[in-house]
Design a protein that fits this description.
This protein has 77 residues and is mainly alpha-helical. The chain has a domain of 51 residues. The protein is elongated and about 60 Å long.
Length: 77
Amino acid sequence: MANMKRHMTHDEEFQIMKIVLDKFLWLGVGIMAFGFYKMISLSESLWYGLTVLIAGAIILLVFIYILVREYNFISKH
């Protein structure tokens, strides 16, 4: 048989990308929740919790960047 590769439709590609990017979303929210917990707990430093919270926000910003770059959600006039 010849080298036959199956090509995905745009819908299939989008569905797979949604699954992958959904993991980024949950990871970012989880890290931010952990950072918030560390900020309000009395035994931990405020700065440590704030740092973890900012790391989660950065992960969410990466998520947004990938979505906008990959699927061009911002329309061009």
